[in-house]
Structures are given as C-alpha cells and as structure tokens.
Automatic annotation (TrEMBL):
Protein name: HD domain-containing protein
Organism of derivation: Atlanticothrix silvestris CENA357
Stored Gene3D superfamilies: Hypothetical protein af1432
Origin superkingdom: Bacteria
InterPro entries: HD_domain
Length: 184
C-alpha cells in the first residue's frame, strides 16, 4: 500500500461536501473491508479493498459527468494501480472489464450498498428488520431510489459469481453492525 486511509479520506474531504456521499463512502468502505474476507481470500486484502470502497466516488460531486476520471488519475499518481483500475471498472459505462476479485466486489457492493441504505431509510426501524426479499421487491420498483443503477447491481452479483439474494443478505448484515455509526 502506498496511500494511507487518512490520505484517501483527505482526498474525499477535498472533493466532497455532501453528507450523503460521505455516508455512502463510509458504508461502501465498511462493506468492502468485510467483502475482502469473503471474496478476496485473505485478510491482507482488507485495507486495500476498504480504500477502494472509501475513495471510489470521491470525484462524483465535482465532476459527475467525468466520474471516475479524476479519482482514477489521482490514484495512478499515488502509485495505486490496482485500486485505480477497480475504481475505473466500477462505472460500467466506461466498459473496463472486471478482472480481479477487487474489481468485481467493488461493482457488486457499490450500488447495492446505496440501495440497501435507501431501503432502510423508509422503514420505521431502519435497517434492523430489513431482509433480502424486501430489497429485491424494491429493486423492481423503478421509481424507488431511481438514480440507483439496477443493471450494475445485477451485473455485480453476476461478475462476482454470487446469488443476488445471498449478496444482499451479506450487505444488510454488515450494515446492521455499523448502523449507529452510519446513522441508518
């Protein structure tokens, strides 16, 4: 690892002011850290996977039409080619193939994490009683969390080779553990 979590956090703070984007960045970081253990094969991957989750949308607020061009360039300047590649690949519109488990996991966790949080926001007890069937039902309602790219959610689980319902359960369980910290 070349960059530290603090350097990644500072870059996020420099380019982002929207509190919702901070919560998204933190929640994807948390999910990716745990995903490293399940999908990455070893705990040495946790820090790198977490950094990819934390920083992946850092340029979205300032340059939404160019996202993730600027954060990818910054990561390459910082000598983080694996994270840069995963961040480039997480935006399927770029057409970058998903080669490594990191690439696939970031795709599988990013949009789904945001969608699970959106689902929890409309429940009286937040995420505590949310289950995969509720999330799957909401996925079919195009007007609910309309900005979430459902194609990326489906592509992510397909690329990672996991059942979507099982992956949703994985994300819900991780977010439940951090619900207070994330205010969900």
């Amino acid at each position: 690892m070349v960059i530290s979590r603090q350097q990644a956090w500072n870059k996020l703070l420099e380019w982002t002011s929207n509190p919702s984007l901070f919560i998204h960045a933190r929640s994807v970081e948390i999910v990716m850290r745990r995903a490293a253990h399940l999908y990455g094969g070893n705990e040495q991957e946790e820090e790198r996977w977490g950094l990819a989750g934390l920083i992946h949308d850092a340029d979205y607020e300032l340059w939404p039409e160019e996202h993730p061009k600027h954060i990818v360039a910054w990561l390459e300047e910082q000598k983080e080619p694996e994270i840069a590649y995963a961040v480039a690949a997480h935006n399927t519109k770029w057409g970058v193939p998903h080669i490594t488990q990191l690439d696939k996991a970031l795709l599988a966790c990013d949009e789904l994490t945001g969608f699970v949080i959106a689902c929890s926001k409309v429940r009286p007890d937040g995420i505590q009683s949310l289950d995969p069937s509720s999330v799957l039902k909401r996925l079919k309602t195009k007007s609910f969390a309309a900005k979430v790219d459902r194609d990326e959610i489906h592509a992510g689980s397909r690329e990672l080779g996991v059942d979507l319902s099982d992956h949703i359960a994985f994300v819900i369980d991780i977010l439940k553990d951090s619900a207070n910290d994330l205010e969900i």
